[in-house]
Amino acid sequence: MLAGFIVLMIACMFQGSFGLGMKNYRPFSWEAFWVIFSIIGILIIPIVWTWIEVPGFYQYIAATPPWILAIAAACGFLWGVSAIWYGKGIDCIGMSLTVGINTGVGCSLGSLIPLFILGNMPSSHSLAWLLVGMAVMILGVGIITRAGILKDKESRQDASRIRNPKFVSGLVMALASGFGTAAMNIGYTYASRASSLAVEDGINPVSASLIAYVIVFASGGFVSNLGYALWMLNKNNTFSDFSRRGSSFAWFKALLTGGIWFAALGLYAKSTALLGDLGPVIGWIAFLSGALIISNAWGLKTGEWQGYERPKRVMLLGNAVLVLSVVIVGYANGLS
């Protein structure tokens, strides 16, 4: 179980860091960046990584009941739509606030629903502590969201600061993206049936866990992400971005972002296998909470809170509360 938490913490670092690539990718347009991110991070890397660890993994997908694959693909499509909002939310209101709101919705729904899907309820004592940990986590996210609102309020009251006309739309997109984040974990829980078939065939559970993500992402998730990005490229006539002068660094950033993004989820999948039966529930809470702490650290590093001392203090308090929630969830896992 200790190994599971170590892998999970590494996954948190990647998950909390990949958003840096979405902050400045000029001279690419958003849609040019997203096409590369989708092809590399959502399609190619998951398939290649899984093939390396589980050669012939497609046979386990083919043996999975079609209705399970359909639900997982539908969840992947919903996540794909939300991923678009997530990227645009970072563009509008920054990493700290987008990740905070996304985490609050995604963590609560994305962990409770799989708990009932799995049908493997922990002991009443463990469940009570798990719910306490979730409540503390939601409190921490609420405090961080409050920090963002205070920051926006201060910028509106000070004429010397640049106002953000996209603040409200960014908040809405960050909130909506949380539902898709929850859908991703729900889809992964269903798709884990294919991973279970691989385990029954003698495949290492840690490697087999990757198969579920191929189902979720390479189907509905890839279709929604790439489809929208191509539509935007055609609408804005920005196909020339790929060969624009100075675009080599944008290419590198898009490729690196896609790699880091799936590295986070691939390692999270492995951690769920190491954490035991409730890995998709407890691991999901710790994964998103830990990633939020990392993303806020990057937000401080890149100057998102510079000049906003009171909002920054509130944000740091929220992070402290999140650390407490992860400790409580870890304790609950030890009791299960």
UniProtKB/TrEMBL annotation:
A Pfam family assignment: RhaT
Transmembrane segments: 6-25, 32-52, 67-87, 99-121, 127-149, 170-190, 210-231, 251-269, 281-302, 314-332
Gene Ontology CC, one term: membrane
Keywords from the named record: Cell inner membrane, Cell membrane, Membrane, Sugar transport, Symport, Transmembrane, Transmembrane helix, Transport
GO molecular function: rhamnose transmembrane transporter activity; symporter activity
Identification of the protein by name: L-rhamnose-H+ transport protein
